[in-house]
Amino acid sequence: MEKLHVIRNLKEDEIHLPIEWARLEGWNPGLFDGSCHYPVDPEGWFCAEYEGEIIGVGVATNYDETFSFGGYYIVKKQYRHQGAGWEIFSAMLTHAGERNFGGDGVFEMQDKYTKAVGFQFAYRNIRWQGIANGNEQPDLLPAKDVPFNQLLIYDSEHFPATRRTFLEKWISQPESSALVKLDNHENIRGYGVIRKCFEGYKTGPLFAENPEIANEIFEGLMAEIPGETIFLDTPEPNGAALKMARDRSMAKVFGTARMYTKKNPQLPIHEIFGVTTFELG
C-alpha cells in the first residue's frame, strides 16, 4: 500500500473501535474499559485511516511525566505488513516521549519489540480462567465506603504512577464490584476489582499485603457473581498468586510479556496478585 493512510487521534465517539477489535482478537476486554480508559489521556488514542476507513489503532496512556503504557495495538489483517502499524506505533512512542513506556506483548512478538523499539523484558503475566465459587467476606468494604484519597495512595504504591482519573472511574463502573480490606486502624491492607467483560468477568487489579488477604478479597469478589466464568491475570514472579489460581483449579489460557523501554519499575510484585489490564498496566 502506498503511503496514502493518515495517522490521527481517535475521536471520543470512535473509542469503541479498539475495544471491539480487541474482542475480535480474543483479548476479551471489559464492557466499560473504553469509558474508564479514554479520559485519562485522550491525546494518546491513535488510528491509521485509509480512504475513509480506520485500518489500525493503538493507545499510549501517559499517566504522568515519567510513565506511559501502551495497548490496543491492532491493524486489520489485510493491511498488516504495509507500514501503517509501524506509523501508529511511532505515534505512540512520540506521544510517550521520554517517559518509561510499558506494554504487555504476546510472547511471539517479544523479540520483535525488543529489536525494533528496545523494549526490555521484565516478566511474564499468566491469564487464568475458572468458575466463580466464592464465599461472602463480611470483613471487606465496598471501595465507595473508603476515603478515595486513601485508596489512591495504596494503589500508587502498587503501580508506577498515580492514576486518579482512571481509578475514580474504574471502581465505580457499571456491572462491577470493588472491595477493600482494612485493618483495625483503618489502614488499607488490600483491594480488588471485578468487572463484566464480553466473556465472563475479569479481576484486576488485585493488590494485597499477603496471600491470605488476597484470597479473602478474591473470594469476596467471586461471591458477587456465583457460577460465572472468571479470569485472573497474575504476574508470574508472584508464586503465591499462581498458587491461588491453581488451588481453585483455574486453567492457564493466555499470557503476555511485560516489557518496558527503560527500567522495570520497582514495585512490590509479591503484593500484586492481579494486574489491572494488559492494555493499561
**N→C terminal distance:** 33 Å
How many whole angstroms does the radius of gyration measure? Answer: 19 Å
Please tell me what the overall shape is. Answer: globular
Number of domains: 2
Q: Note the main sheet.
A: 13 strands, mixed
How many DSSP-defined strands?
Answer: 13
What average pLDDT do the residues reach?
A: 95
- Note poorly predicted spans: none
CATH architecture assignment of the largest domain: 3-Layer(aba) Sandwich
CATH-derived topology of the largest domain: Aminopeptidase
Gist of the model:
The protein has 281 residues and is an alpha+beta fold. The chain is built from 8 helices and 13 strands. Strands 1, 2, 3, 4, 5, 6, 7, 8, 9, 10, 11, 12 and 13 form a 13-stranded mixed sheet that branches.
Can you walk me through this structure?
It is a single chain. With about 280 residues, the protein is an alpha+beta fold. The protein folds into two domains: about 100 residues, Gcn5-related N-acetyltransferase (GNAT) (Aminopeptidase), CATH 3.40.630; about 150 residues, Aminopeptidase (3-Layer(aba) Sandwich). Helices cover about 25% and strands about 35% of the residues. The chain has eight helices and 13 strands. Strands 1, 2, 3, 4, 5, 6, 7, 8, 9, 10, 11, 12 and 13 form a 13-stranded mixed β-sheet that branches. A hairpin with a 5-residue loop joins β8 and β9. It is globular.
